[in-house]
Amino acid sequence: MPGRWLQRNGLRGLIPTSEGFPKCWTGPVYLFDPPESCLKNWEAPVPKDYVEKWSEVLDRLHDDAAELKDAERRARKADGRYDPTRLARNFADFVMA
């Protein structure tokens, strides 16, 4: 449910700081350091304190209208860079140059 809710509202969700994930995501992401046990083995269960931290972010988005509105604004701004009309215009300009 939270993943679908985040996607429906244009939010990117919880993104680990490991590897290249932060560079791949735009807009309102909530970065977190993955637990050491999960860095060594992605199939390892996530420790309870980490799940509680992630749940707090989701709770804030659900309970704090100002934070949700700000996250939605940032999502719309980030998605604007993929506007098909603007991309087509930029491509045409590039080809004609």
Order of helices and strands: HEHEHHHH
Regions with pLDDT < 50 over 5+ consecutive residues?
1-6
Strand order of the largest sheet: 1-2
Oligomer description: single chain
Summarize the SSE layout with pairings.
Layout: H1 2-8, E1 13-16, H2 21-24, E2 29-32, H3 36-40, H4 48-63, H5 65-79, H6 84-96
Parallel strand pairs: 1-2
Helix pairs in contact: 4-5
Describe this structure in words.
- The chain has 97 residues and is mainly alpha-helical.
- It has one domain.
- It has 6 helices and 2 strands, in the order H-E-H-E-H-H-H-H.
- Helix 2 links the parallel strand 1 (13-16) and strand 2.
- Helix 4 (48-63) packs across helix 5 (65-79).
- The longest helix has 16 residues, at 48-63.
- The termini are far apart.
Quick summary of this structure?
The chain has 97 residues and is mainly alpha-helical. 62% of the residues lie in helices and 8% in strands. It has a two-stranded parallel ribbon.
Features:
97 residues, mainly alpha, two-stranded parallel sheet, 6 helices, 62% helix, 8% strand
